[in-house]
Amino acid sequence: AAAHGFGYMHASSGHNSVIQYCWPQGDFKSLQAVGPSPLIIEKELLRKVAPLWLNCSYILRGRPEPAHRIQDWVLEMWGYSIAAASLGIRHSVKGMQIEPNAYAGTKDGFEKGYQIFHYTYGIEYRLNGSPQGFNTIGEWSLDKRHYGGAYPPPNLDPPPKQANPSTKWLHAAWNEAITEAGDTWPATNAMGTIGWRREGATADEIQKSALASAVVGSHWTWAGIKTLSFLPAGALKTPWGVGKWGIALQPKGLPACAPPGECLYIDFSGAAHHASFDLSAGTFLSTRVGDGEEVIGKRL
After folding, report:
1. Dist. CA 230–CA 218, nearest whole Å
2. 288 near 273, Cβ under 8 Å?
């Protein structure tokens, strides 16, 4: 068999008690730092290991200790590794896939060295081309987690010119897949690669925006319900709890937001919205990201 090696799958003596839940005679020295995907294995071996893998996964999920000793989201991977070792299955451990982020030092042609591009990490950049940082959403963001409720839109905005080759490759692959789907690609109101970073408008951002400057400190209704308050520093107070507001960057499908026009994002209760304002009339029209539900707000 052959499998990809994972740095977080290395076992130590501290894992023996977990291993022995599934394989009483086993110990950490027998385990390889592999999981069930990607995996190349003969069908007969897969038939033998699959029931043990499933049973071990249930065992590890059913006890509190494994989740404390091993990262919770890889317990099924450990289930496979333990089951395979118990049957004496050994793997040729290879670098079969690449998992790059914005900091990856990839070079042109990098894809020739791998069989799989695993886009597990969000790729997060500032619009000036520097990585946004770790565990945060970028001003330019390509992350599968954004699309749990709606499909990504066509023609995703390209990454900054300074982005690494793996980012540019993945962006092109996404756009190619959406284009090839043609009319079968579902209609969507989701954002593309720009606009997901929504940390609340800073004082400097508010000052530079005519719309934000006019709205900060004001109070509005939301579908006739009081009161939606646009507070300083991008803080939002609503009848349903606190949220954040700020300047929406290039929201797709909303002509009123296209430059030189401006729109705001209004986020609360786990939902993201884009709002276009008619300040002379004292109204705004909010469109919810994902399903496109519209709500009218009026100034108090």
Report:
1. 6
2. yes
Question: How confident is the model at residue 258, as a pLDDT?
Answer: 86
Q: What value, to the nearest 5°, has the Cα angle with vertex 249 and ends 140 and 145?
A: 45
- Amino acid (1-letter code) at residue 63: R
Residue with tokens 């005679």, as numbered in its chain: 25
Higher-confidence residue: 42 or 149? 42
Return d(Cα 161, Cα 186) in angstroms, integer. 29
Identity of the residue numbered 49: V
b/e per residue 221-234 (b: at least 16 CB within 10 A): bbeeeeebbbbeeb
Diameter of the chain measured on Cα atoms:
77
**Count of residues for the chain?**
300
Check: CB of residue 294 under 8 Å from CB of residue 285: yes
pTM of the model: 0.79
Residues 49-59 as b/e (b if ≥16 CB within 10 A, e otherwise) read beebbeebbeb
CB–CB of 222/297 below 8 Å? yes
Predicted confidence (pLDDT) at residue 250 exceeds the cutoff of 80? no
DSSP-assigned letter for residue 148: S
Judge whether 79 and 54 are in contact, CB under 8 Å: yes
Q: Per-residue pLDDT tens for 103-134?
A: 999 999 999 999 999 998 999 999 999 999 99
pLDDT in tens, 168-199: 999 999 999 999 999 999 988 888 999 999 99
Helix (H, G, I), strand (E, B) or coil at 213: helix
Q: Is the dihedral of CA 72, 76, 79, 80 positive or negative?
A: negative
Residue 96: both structure tokens together: 């079969």
Looking only at the bridges linking them, the beta strands covering 241-247 and 235-238 are antiparallel
- In angstroms, rounded to a whole number, what is the distance separating the alpha carbons of residues 165 and 171? 10
Confidence of residue 290 (pLDDT cuts 50, 70, 90): confident
